[in-house]
Amino acid sequence: MHWQKRRLLGPDVMELEMNKLIVEKKGHVCVIGAGIIGATTAYALSRSGWSVTVIEAEQEAGMGASFANGAQLSYSYVEPLATPYALKKIPFWLLSCDSPIRWLPQFNKKHIWWLIKFISYCNSKKVQSTTKQLLDISFLTKNSLHGWLNDLGISESDILLEKTGKLVIYRNQHELSAVKKQIEFQKSFGCQQEILSADQCIEKEPSLARIKRDIAFGVYTLSEEAVDCHKLSQLILKHSDVNEIYDARVLNFNIKGNKIESIRTSKGEIAADKFVVAAGIETNTLLQKINKELLIEPIKGYSVSFPIINRDYAPNGSITDQNRKIVFARIGNTLRVAGYAEILGNNLKIDQRRIASLVADAERVFPGAIDPKNFTSWAGLRPCSPSGIPYIQSIGHENLWVNAGHGSLGLTLSVGSAVLLAKKIDKCGYV
Ligand SMILES: Cc1cc2nc3c(=O)[nH]c(=O)nc-3n(C[C@H](O)[C@H](O)[C@H](O)COP(=O)(O)OP(=O)(O)OC[C@H]3O[C@@H](n4cnc5c(N)ncnc54)[C@H](O)[C@@H]3O)c2cc1C
User: Of the ranges 77-81, 353-357, 375-379, 409-413, which one carries the lowest mean pLDDT score?
Assistant: First the structure.
């Protein structure tokens, strides 16, 4: 049977033709959460022949951590947060108010366990193996994303995709040998990156001339891209044949034997053959209903977005200030500046000092490109696993799956994670 995609809105329509929709499909999968991970998961499953419904608590897709993030598809920059360098810095993060990373210890079992696990990953051997696993996923995104866009009829301008590469600037010359080593290591996995002198950095990005004396060296990666993650989440769903239900919060699961039979939502019940939790930072709120939990810590970050008023002074591509841990991305006519990592629990309160600092950075690095009084500010919670590797697995019940915990790389890892999850679900057999 051929059927038309519907945007489902209420309880009466939810029962609807769900049964009709699964005819001639492998079965029906319900994906919980329409952030970039839920959206890509839903589409990967739909491509693979499943009838898919995505259920989202907000009014539209991409309103959580996927809303105004750093916009980087940084396929070759996937080094996790857990490194020997991070371990050395923990005391500083505890004491300093204005370091790029801030940590306020919480005295609950889950947080302490997350921290113990995080520390256990802070050694060179683990960093290498984590980097390798993350590169596998990010390259899967790199190799699949453009095919998806083509198949869906989404143009690069619809999602403000910029293929202008990424320049990472370093302020300390003594970091050069470690950076060279990392580049050499990553080369064996297909990453193509070049080290640039300060002069070469300015050649590549003339807009950086004002801070030339601060630049020790840079690393340029041509393959990196930038994209509006919010738009990408929305358009993937809009252009696919995934059914979308918005403004519906999943509250609990109905279980029969070892299977989830249906989910209870604020708009009624939905039955399916398989369920995928892709609820970002709220993944555990749902898993706790079935006495399961994953180690996912919310790490808050901020962004400010400026309309570009003079393109001559704006960056051509993405720039990361490695020492200040700030990214600058040009997406369409917007300059997005994002940064900071605050481990302060599950709160989205905006610290205005962080915003002021990002605005000051933008003004200092790209004077004339933006009006420092005209911007929008945002905070989001990165759903972070201790290792940096996302959870792409079944959990608790034979038809329940999870795709969550992508930390600072959710956009970069999205398509790859979705493809991997769809493969795993297919391998387990159909309905
Ligand atoms: C400041 C900042 C900068 C970043 N920069 C980058 C970057 O440059 N590149 C990159 O790759 N990554 C970046 N990230 C990380 C990336 O944004 C996240 O990893 C990614 O958005 C996580 O996507 P998600 O779909 O898992 O979560 P979310 O986008 O939060 O989506 C989860 C969705 O689930 C919904 N939901 C939750 N509970 C329920 C429920 N019970 N019922 C129904 N719906 C529910 C939520 O409403 C939400 O829409 C950045 C993050 C931040 C904060």
Answer: 77-81
Domains with residue ranges and CATH for the chain: 7-65+231-295+390-427 (3.50.50.60), 72-225+296-384 (3.30.9.10)
Q: Is the pLDDT of residue 351 over 50?
A: yes
Ligand 1 centroid–CA 35 distance in Å is: 5
Which residue, judged by its Cα, is nearest atom 31 of ligand 1? 35
Distance 65 CA to ligand 1 centre (A): 3
The response to whether residue 383 sits with its C-beta less than 6 Å from ligand 1 reads yes
Provide the mean pLDDT of the chain: 92
The closest-lying atom of ligand 1 relative to the alpha carbon of residue 251 is 41
pLDDT tops 50 at residue 267: yes
Expressed in angstroms and rounded, the spacing between residue 194 Cα and the centre of ligand 1 is 31
Residue nearest to atom 27 of ligand 1 (CA): 280
Q: How far is the CA of 73 from the centre of ligand 1 (A)?
A: 14
Q: Using a 6 Å cutoff on CB, does residue 412 contact ligand 1?
A: yes
Q: pLDDT tens digits for 69-79?
A: 999 999 999 98
Q: What's the chain look like in SS3?
A: CCCCCCEECCHHHHHCCHHHHCCCCCCEEEEECCCHHHHHHHHHHHHCCCEEEEECCCCCCCCCCCCCCCCEECCCCCCCCCCHHHHHHHHHHHHCCCCCEEECCCCCHHHHHHHHHHHHCCCHHHHHHHHHHHHHHHHHHHHHHHHHHHHHCCCCCCCCCECCCEEEEECCHHHHHHHHHHHHHHHCCCCCCEEEEHHHHHHHCHHHHHHHHHCCEEEEECCCEECCHHHHHHHHHHHCCCEEECCCCEEEEEEECCEEEEEEECCEEEECCEEEECCHHHHHHHHHHHCCCCCCEEEEEEEEEEEECCHHHCCCCEEEECCCCEEEEEECCEEEEEEEEEECCCCCCCCHHHHHHHHHHHHHHCCCCECCCCCEEEEEEEEECCCCCCEEEECCCCCEEEEECEHHHHHHHHHHHHHHHHHHHHHCCCC
